[in-house]
Design a protein that fits this description.
Elements: E1 23-29, E2 35-41, E3 52-57, H1 60-74, H2 78-81, E4 87-92, H3 103-107, H4 130-148, E5 151-161, H5 163-174, E6 181-185, H6 193-209, E7 214-221, H7 231-244, H8 246-249, E8 251-258, H9 266-278
Parallel strand pairs: 3-4, 3-5, 5-6, 6-7, 7-8
Antiparallel strand pairs: 1-2, 2-4
Length: 286
């Protein structure tokens, strides 16, 4: 019996790095001296007259590829999928891992007096920089994006998960006019609880005088409900509070629980839902 001779493996020079089509990245240092890795992907083809919608993605190293590929697959037929082409802008850090310690500072409104250590018993890094981070997004990052891509300022979304979900709620309460769509996945609402409740009351009082037009999606995994932090119940209660006064303040809020998903596994299905939520080709003012 003759031996089977396999084809010789190609040399290392034959292998090439795989890149996401129409995506690019660059470093940005904020006026406060904090450094970010910005990753942006644009759609293929000519933009609409008003420009492309934009989704700003927090913890950008973690799920940029997931969101871009989900969007690329679905936006080819908006009439069938309910998803129109958009620009994805991920705000990440100089790391090849999914998360960086710097996120604790950027995504939390105040230092926590209750939570001092992470799940691995390591001390939680510096916190309390959400105000500066939101200012960076609004005053530094958005002008850079608008100078490079055709952007529809009336169709901008913010997507955050976990601490990013907490920041998304903070941004809604602090500067609701910054975005028209807010997607808060598994928001860490156990963080800075009293402060966030005060901020919510201030937001509602202001919105009763000057109604805002925004839509908010809270998305969690079913398996998160058993976690001791109770954030699923908090997110649902917040959604219900906003929905109950939606006619008064112009906020349309909804809560969605994804069956069989946990805190991390919920991300791909939440991203798919978020695309239809923020990028539907029909007017959301119906």
């Amino acid at each position: 019996m003759e031996p089977i001779i396999s084809e010789a493996a190609p040399s290392d020079a034959a292998y090439q790095q795989v890149n996401i089509p129409y995506a690019e990245q660059w470093g940005m240092t904020s006026r406060e001296g904090r450094t970010y890795r910005i990753i942006a992907a644009r759609p293929l083809g000519e933009p609409p007259p008003a420009g492309y919608p934009v989704i700003y993605l927090l913890d950008g190293n973690s799920v940029f590829g997931t969101m871009v590929e989900a969007l690329r697959l679905q936006c080819r037929r908006p009439d069938h999928t309910g998803v129109m082409p958009a620009i994805v802008v991920a705000i990440g850090y100089e790391t090849n891992g999914p998360y960086a310690p710097e996120r604790f500072y950027d995504l939390t409104p105040l230092p926590s007096m209750e939570y001092r250590r992470r799940f691995d018993n390591e001390r939680i890094p510096e916190q309390g920089g959400a105000r500066e981070f939101l200012h960076f997004i609004e005053e530094e990052l958005k002008p850079r994006i608008e100078g490079r891509f055709p952007v529809d300022r009336t169709r901008q979304a913010l997507f955050g998960h976990s601490l990013g979900g907490l920041f998304t709620v903070y941004a809604l309460f602090s500067k609701p006019e910054a975005f028209q769509y807010y997607i808060a996945g598994s928001p860490s609402l156990h963080w800075n609880q009293e402060y966030m409740l005060d901020l919510e009351r201030e937001f509602i009082a202001l919105a009763r005088k000057l109604p805002v037009r925004v839509r908010v999606l809270f998305g969690v995994g079913e398996l998160e409900k058993s976690h001791e932090c109770g954030n699923c119940a908090r997110a649902q209660a917040l959604s219900e509070r906003l929905a109950a006064i939606s006619a008064d303040i112009g906020v349309r809020a909804e809560y969605q629980e994804f069956a069989g998903e946990g805190h991390v596994s919920v991300l791909p299905v939440l991203i798919s839902r978020a695309l239809r939520f923020a990028l539907h080709p029909c007017s959301e003012e119906e």
